[in-house]
Specification:
Chain A: Required for the assembly of the mitochondrial membrane respiratory chain NADH dehydrogenase (Complex I). Involved in mid-late stages of complex I assembly. Chain A: GO terms for molecular function: oxidoreductase activity. Chain A: This is FAD-dependent oxidoreductase domain-containing protein 1. Chain A: Its cofactor is FAD. The complex is a heterodimer of chains A (518) and B (256). In chain A, 33% of the residues lie in helices and 23% in strands. Chain A is an alpha/beta fold. Chain A has a domain of 277 residues: FAD/NAD(P)-binding domain, CATH 3.50.50.60. In chain A, strands 1, 2, 8, 9, 10, 11, 17 and 18 form an 8-stranded mixed β-sheet that branches. In chain A, helix 3 runs parallel beside helix 11, helix 3 packs parallel to helix 14 and helix 5 packs across helix 14. With 256 residues, chain B is of the alpha/beta class. Chain B has a domain of 165 residues: Ribonuclease Inhibitor (Leucine-rich repeat, LRR (right-handed beta-alpha superhelix), Alpha-Beta Horseshoe), CATH 3.80.10.10. Chain B is built from 11 helices and 7 strands. Chain B has a 7-stranded mixed β-sheet, with helices on one face. In chain B, helix 2 crosses helix 3 and helix 4 crosses helix 5. Chain B is flat and about 60 Å long. Classes of the chains: A alpha/beta (518), B alpha/beta (256). At the A-B interface, helix 11 and strand 16 of A face helix 2, helix 3, helix 8, helix 9 and helix 10 of B.
Chain lengths: 518, 256
């Protein structure tokens, strides 16, 4: 080995000298040559990045079992669970490819960081429940020897969702789904309206009943709401649902870095590059009904380096599409959606980027430490940030007002016209506030039904999706990662059944919608 | 987030030194020279040998599962003897103290007989002192079943954190005194969810190392719980000294 190194060194030495004279250096610098030789010896020793022609340490490996396109919280979560659930240990080589290692436009870092269980779909509720458990025990899941423990800065202040007359029935049904023990109790709305009719004694008997169940979500009438949070203007509110435990907000960047650190220690490869092409092969198969289908298989992923034409074809067995707002483009590269419309081949992945603004303001008279994450009947939301009477918030625009997702520029007029009036109506103290800063981020918006897509594609058999969560991806990421890893390793969902979130629902037209209360 | 992206920072002292066990965390905060050298050697070995890394991970997992085992809920006892006996048994097993309504304090240090406990089957528990106990989120189940609990002391508990505080709303009807002094993992975010405890009259939040701004937090908690007496940091703590004090220092002549 040593003789070989010496021979290579001698051969290299000539080339090195020749190159240095050609590049115009007059007399070869002795110290420079020594350091060059040292570097070459080091790269020739085992463990170094050895390549006879040029340095390839920035390129991904040539073979990988699983390639995860997208290094945000969903992609890293899938990588973590793949490594955790694989048998035997170290069996699967995983590569995470992301085109921006600064995460400047990634939805994860720009997110407001809320987590709630108040959904109407049972799958969403279970996903959030597991994710909250994961966050609570994050230091058992993501512990790395010799590294400091993680602090996700979780604020357990809960979510407060307000409903108008129209949405009150839907909200009550949602809470019954979230808390099956409440299904036996009489309808809250009739009780609330009876209380309003009596108008004498506002006894908190309702809340006491709910508390006896050991509740985590409670329904509140406008009077109870006014008692609990005197700074709210309950005009137009018929019902409110307040999450007592397991809801709040946290620091998404910390979760991302914790996942990254842990999976690096588990041996996952990272690469900064853009996926430009999938090399696929097709085979014609016949269904049991006699219909002919073309099944595709991805063999190679071409990863292109930044600011360069250099690319590396990575041979892979599986591809996981966790590209967030750009998942639709990645799916098109694999040929998903290229076919006559109305057929399975022609069904695109309906995930596209949608820009959302977040504003940060200061209001010295604003609500205090007990402020939950409040979502108004109009769709405007806000939450407390820190101890200095600062708040974060925004509003989802209607379909007609959707801003252009081409860039992440902030429209300040949107706050003036669409967000502030609703906030000031709901919280009178917000009539005088001062916007300190604002930013914009993307939702990986599922235009079909605004819920995530999980699992394999029926035709491109080795592409799995973990995307399209339209604003609640961060809060469900740990659970979704586990579900996708189970699908990959065992072929079916084991802990949480997400069969209703598979890709095939886009072709079959089965919408799986959240019943919002707005 | 508008706040700058903070790198991972230490809230509790490093865990993998756990030589002195869970209760002796204070020694890990200020290491001596020899301990530091030992730690650096251990880190060196861990970086280079998979076996050492695996052994250390296993030891860490054992530590964690030890805490979980101590906080296992004893559903059998609960079913047979009721929530009060189960709660008392749990607290005394951990090394704390309980006070039944109309009785004296029963402390595990001073010894107790289980038969004595059984005689209190229908008597509700009034006060629990779980200071210095390894009680955590799961273990809190036993305490939350005590619906007549008036006083809860959780001083210097190493595993009580913000998540545990978010569960205390279940005791809102009865709890009048709560002490969280010296708990290393409680921050102002957990204190924010104490607003459910509207019957609280005494709250002790002194000496919380993880609270970023003790004086300001004290003021905000007092605003949040107007009928409660809050013991904690002085409001002037954390404020910089005023200009009068500074000029005084410069004016005083240095004796020759």
């Amino acid at each position: 080995m040593f003789r070989g190194a010496l021979w290579l060194l001698a051969g290299r030495g000539c080339v090195g000298r020749g190159l240095s004279t050609r590049s115009g250096g007059s007399t070869p610098d002795w110290t420079e040559k020594v350091s060059e030789i040292k570097k070459k010896i080091q790269s020739a020793l085992p463990g170094g990045a050895w390549d006879p022609l040029y340095d390839t340490s920035h390129l991904p490996p040539e073979h990988s079992d699983v390639v995860i396109v997208g290094g945000g919280v969903l992609g890293l979560s899938v990588a973590y669970w793949l490594k955790r659930l694989e048998k035997p240990r170290g069996a699967i080589r995983v590569l995470v490819v992301d085109r921006d290692h600064t995460y400047s436009r990634a939805s994860t870092g720009l997110s407001v960081g809320g987590i709630r269980q108040q959904f109407s779909l049972p799958e969403n509720i279970q996903l959030s429940l597991f994710s909250v458990d994961f966050l609570r025990n994050i230091n058992e899941y993501l512990a790395v020897v010799d590294d400091p423990p993680l602090d996700v800065q979780f604020n357990p202040s809960g979510y407060l969702l307000l409903a108008s007359e129209k949405g009150a029935a839907i909200m009550e049904n949602n809470v019954k789904v979230q808390r099956p023990d409440m299904a036996a109790l009489p309808s809250v709305i009739t009780m609330v309206s009876q209380e309003q009719e009596s108008a004498t004694d506002r006894s908190p008997s309702l809340t006491r009943d709910i508390r006896q169940e050991g509740a985590k979500v409670c329904l509140m009438s406008p009077e109870q709401l006014q008692n609990k949070f005197p700074w709210i203007n309950t005009d137009g509110v018929a019902l409110a649902s307040y999450g007592l435990e397991g809801e709040g907000w946290f620091d998404p960047w910390c979760l991302l870095q914790g996942l990254r650190r842990k999976i690096q220690s588990l041996g996952v490869f990272f690469c900064q590059g853009e996926v430009t092409r999938f090399s696929t092969s097709s085979s014609r198969m016949q269904t049991s009904g006699g219909k002919e289908m073309t099944l595709k298989r991805i063999h190679e992923v071409h990863v292109k380096m930044d600011h360069s034409l250099e690319y590396q074809p990575v041979e892979c067995a599986l591809v996981i599409n966790a590209a967030g707002a750009w998942s639709g483009q990645v799916a098109e590269l694999a040929g998903i959606g290229k076919g006559p419309p109305g057929t399975l081949e022609g069904t695109k992945l309906p995930v596209e980027p949608r820009k959302r603004y977040v504003y940060f303001w200061h209001c010295p008279e604003g609500p205090g430490l007990e402020t939950p994450f409040m979502a108004d009947t109009s769709g405007a939301y806000f939450r407390r940030e820190g101890l200095g009477h600062n708040y974060l918030g925004g509003c989802s625009p209607t379909e007609e007002e959707e801003p252009d997702p081409g860039n992440l520029e902030v429209d300040h007029d949107f706050f003036q016209d669409k967000v502030w009036p609703h906030l000031a109506h709901r919280v009178p103290a917000f009539q005088s506030l001062k916007v300190r800063s604002a930013w914009a981020g993307y939702y990986d918006y599922n235009t079909f039904d605004q819920n995530g897509v999980v699992g394999p594609h029926p035709l491109v058999v080795n592409m799995y999706f973990a995307t399209g969560f339209s604003g609640h991806g961060l809060q469900q990421a740990p659970a979704v990662g586990r579900a996708v890893a189970e699908m990959v390793l065992k072929g079916q969902f084991q802990t949480i059944d997400l069969s209703s979130l598979l890709f095939s629902r886009f072709y079959l037209g089965e919408k799986v919608e959240e019943r919002n209360i707005i | 987030m508008a706040a700058p992206r903070a790198s991972l920072h230490l809230v509790a002292p490093k865990w993998n030194l756990g030589t002195s066990g869970i209760r002796g965390l204070s020694s890990a905060v200020t290491p001596e020279g020899n301990q530091r050298k030992g730690r650096m050697l251990l880190q060196f070995l861990t970086d280079r040998f998979y076996d050492v890394e695996a052994i250390r991970q296993y030891l860490f997992q054992k530590q964690v599962s030890k805490v979980h085992k101590e906080n296992r809920s004893s559903t059998g006892i609960k079913k047979q003897y009721g929530p009060y006996i189960a709660g008392a048994y749990f607290v005394l097993k951990q090394g704390g103290a309980v006070k039944f309504q109309g009785e004296e304090w029963i402390r595990s240090k001073h010894g107790y007989s289980p038969l004595q406990l059984l005689s209190f089957q229908a008597v509700p528990i009034e006060a629990v002192d779980a200071s210095d106990c390894a009680i955590n989120y799961e273990g809190l189940d036993n305490l939350l079943a005590l619906k007549e609990l008036q006083s809860l002391l959780l001083q210097r508990c190493p595993h009580v954190d913000d998540w545990c505080l978010s569960r205390l709303h279940q005791l809102a009807n009865s709890l009048q005194e709560l002490s969280l002094a010296g708990c290393p993992r409680i921050s102002e975010r957990g204190l924010a969810c104490l607003h459910h405890l509207q019957n609280l009259r005494r709250l002790d939040i002194s000496d919380l190392p993880a609270v970023s701004n003790p004086g300001l937090t004290q003021i905000l908690v007092e605003e949040m719980l107007p009928r409660c007496e809050v013991l904690g940091a002085e409001w002037a703590q954390g404020l910089k000294s005023g200009p009068e004090q500074q000029s005084q220092d410069t004016a005083s002549p240095i004796p020759a």
